[in-house]
Amino acid sequence: MMTKYFSSPRKKPLGRQQASACLVPLLVLLSLAVTGCRQPKSQPPPPANLPAEVVVTTPRAVQLPEYLEVTGRIDAERVVDIRSRVTGYLTKVAVQDGQFVSAGDPLYQIDDRPARAKLDEAVGVIERLLGEQRFLKVQVDRFEKLVAKGAASQQDYDSYKAKLEENAGSLTAARAQHEAARLNVEFCSITAPITGQIGRTQLQVGNLISQDTSTLTTIVSINPIFVYFNVDEPTFLRVMNQARESGRGLGIGRRATTADVGLVDDVDRNYPYRSEIDFLNNQVDTSTATITMRGRLDNPYSADPAAPRPPLFRPGMFARVRLPLGDSMERVFVPEAAVGSIQDRKIVWIVGTDNLVSAREVTLGQKLGSWIAVLSVDSSRPLATTDSIVIRGLQRCREGKPVSPSPAADEILDLASLVVPAPAAPTRAVEPPGQAPAASQPALQPAAAAGPPANGLPSLPPAAEPLPPPGNRSP
Predict the structure, then answer these.
(1) Percent of the chain clearing pLDDT 90 (strictly above)
(2) In the chain, at which end, N or C, are there fewer CB atoms within 10 A of the end residue's CB?
């Protein structure tokens, strides 16, 4: 019997990757064993909460009235667009752009020859009708006597009498046509309707001017001048209540309501000009809930070439208006940086004697530089000048939490701006200027006063100068 011997297969040695995979669990177990044997170190206790550092100061009390500061616009009392009342060609420009003029000064001349021809025609019609009238009167008187003697028929007499009445109507119409023609001749000479400053001339000599259409220039009145501004409805009610209690009103002499005005160069808000409130609109604008008010400003100037003095205010200028709202009283001011907000409320943080802070809701008032007037909403807890107000570190303040206050240095308080504004001195009005046109500016002579001649017709104005040749301009 044959026995078979089978040899077992030889095991292959482990590879490098397999060996490393086997060592990883062993290393993890060893690290856990070593970590478990170590004693944990004790952690240091957390530091105690330190009070927040803030900078504080005390409110200041200032004796002054309450004002409302609003923006407004300067506007002229009167603005007139100069248009021609007749159609014709421009023959002369008697003013320079930007010149100051007085009411009645000549401005432009339009070729009046067509208008004079119409006037001559109207004169001829009147003279013809006057001749017919004289003849008809003689005939009526003659036939009236003949009819009484039975030498003429009543029909002939009535015919001449009717013609005389018809002539009277035609003569009235002819005189109206004559007046219209005479006015057209006068309208060819355009004069200044108001005293003020003229703008730029839009059309020059030789251009066709259309009746009531072509705008030659614009004249704006200079002195006085107005400032318009809007106030909201609650402020308007305060102004009216104050006026009712004090007896002041709009345009009531020395007791008129006044407002101070400053321009864009009034950086320090001194409001150096005084205006009198002379107009209040008759209704509140429902779209803005405001009402328009107007202040009257003196705007003196001189157009004398020897001593010219241009006006300060011009229509369209931006203005700041300071309107008084109440009598003088003591008001508490704090730096504007001390005012914080919680949603729609304004608050200030007050540091108590135990260095705990608390919020106080306030309403804001007038500003003086970088300081602003505040009033406590809770009348039982008014702000006092001995309170410590936080001006820096407002974000670190929490209700009832302790703080570490330090007084504010004088250089960061801007105490120089905490000055009571002095009321503006009233400006001195001057007489309206009445300067004559300069010698270098040829002036148009106004039409001579027409006196009634022997025939009952007014005399004609002097004839206009002929049109200049093409390419030449009148000075």
Answers:
(1) 36
(2) N
| CA distances for 67 relative to 44, 257, 258, 259, angstroms | 60, 13, 12, 9
Angle, vertex CA 234, rays to CA 228 and CA 236, nearest 5: 35
Whether the predicted pLDDT of 442 surpasses 50: no
* Structural fold of domain 67-77+224-324: Elongation Factor Tu (Ef-tu); domain 3 (2.40.30)
Residue from 232, 236, 212, 261 nearest 83 by CA: 212
What radius of gyration, in Å, describes the C-alpha atoms of the chain?
47
3-state secondary structure of 133: helix
pLDDT of residue 331: 86
CA–CA dist 194, 220 (Å, integer) = 8
Per-residue pLDDT reduced to its tens digit, 398-419: 888 999 999 988 888 888 878 7
Mean predicted lDDT score pLDDT of the chain: 79
* pLDDT tens profile 213-270: 889 999 999 989 999 999 888 888 877 877 777 665 554 444 567 888 999 888 877 8
Give the CATH class of 78-110+188-220.
mainly beta
The domain limits of the chain are 53-64+329-408, 67-77+224-324, 78-110+188-220, 112-187
Cβ contacts of residue 185 below 8 Å, gap of 6+?
A: 112, 115, 116, 119, 447, 460, 461
Q: Is 279 strand, coil or helix?
A: strand
Q: Which residues contact 210 (CB under 8 A, 6 or more apart)?
A: 84, 87
157 close to 147: Cβ distance less than 8 angstroms: yes
